[in-house]
Each structure stands twice: as structure tokens, then as C-alpha cells.
């Protein structure tokens, strides 16, 4: 089994491969339910504490890339027409 340091080096190597910063167009057709779930998973991963990120990909990814992920998640919600629903769900979750 690899140590967290070794895993971090592997991720860093993969992210350094030429062409990894090239923009690609993805035609993605998924249900609104999955858009909502994807957004939640992305937000939850980005909200993880630094200690939780250590030893995994999010711990070594530059902040600008994490910001791009957040933008992608928000764009998906916008395109699916789920922004208002997401906000209302957040209010329900926070009121517990």
C-alpha cells in the first residue's frame, strides 16, 4: 500500500502531464437529480477541512482549480434550473 506522500506524488505527476490544462468540451446529458447530487458532492469535497484533504487529490490541487470546480458545479445547477431548489434545500439543511 502506498503512503499518503507517495499518493500525493502520483497525483502531482498525473496533473503535470502535458495537455492536462487543455480545455475539452463535454456533451453531458444527465438527470436533474444527478446534477443536484453532483453539485452536492463537489461542494462537500471542496468544503472538507485541510486535514481531511491531506493525502488525497484535493490536498495538492491549486486553489484556482478548486475554484474552477466550484464554478462548474454552479453552472450545472444553473443550466438545469435548480439554483432556487438548491438554495431552499440548503435552508432546510441549515435549520436542523
Please tally the β strands and state the result.
0
Order of helices and strands: HHHHHH
Per DSSP, the total helix count is 6
Oligomeric form:
single chain
Please state the average pLDDT score: 87
Q: Can you tell me the overall shape?
A: globular
Structure classification: mainly alpha
Q: Compute the separation of the termini in Å.
A: 40 Å
- What low-confidence regions span 5 or more consecutive residues with pLDDT below 50? none
Cα Rg = 16 Å
**Proportion of residues in helical segments:** 55-70%
Strand content: under 5%
Major sheet characteristics: none
List the helices and strands and how they pair.
Blueprint: H1 4-15, H2 32-46, H3 50-53, H4 57-60, H5 63-80, H6 83-94
Helix pairs in contact: 2-5
Q: What can you see in these coordinates?
A:
With 96 residues, this protein is mostly helical. 68% of the residues lie in helices and 0% in strands. It has 6 helices and no strands. The protein has helices spanning 4-15, 32-46, 50-53, 57-60, 63-80, 83-94. The model has no long low-confidence stretch (mean pLDDT 87).
Summarize the structure.
The protein is mostly helical. The protein has helices spanning 4-15, 32-46, 50-53, 57-60, 63-80, 83-94.
Amino acid at each position: 500500500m502506498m503512503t499518503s506522500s507517495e499518493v500525493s506524488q502520483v497525483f502531482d505527476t498525473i496533473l503535470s502531464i502535458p495537455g492536462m490544462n487543455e480545455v475539452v468540451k463535454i456533451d453531458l446529458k444527465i438527470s436533474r437529480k444527478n446534477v443536484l447530487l453532483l453539485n452536492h458532492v463537489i461542494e462537500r469535497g471542496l468544503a472538507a477541512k485541510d486535514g481531511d484533504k491531506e493525502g488525497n487529490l484535493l490536498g495538492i490541487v491549486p486553489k484556482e482549480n478548486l475554484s474552477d470546480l466550484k464554478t462548474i458545479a454552479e453552472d450545472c445547477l444553473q443550466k438545469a434550473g435548480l439554483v432556487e431548489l438548491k438554495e431552499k434545500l440548503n435552508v432546510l439543511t441549515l435549520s436542523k
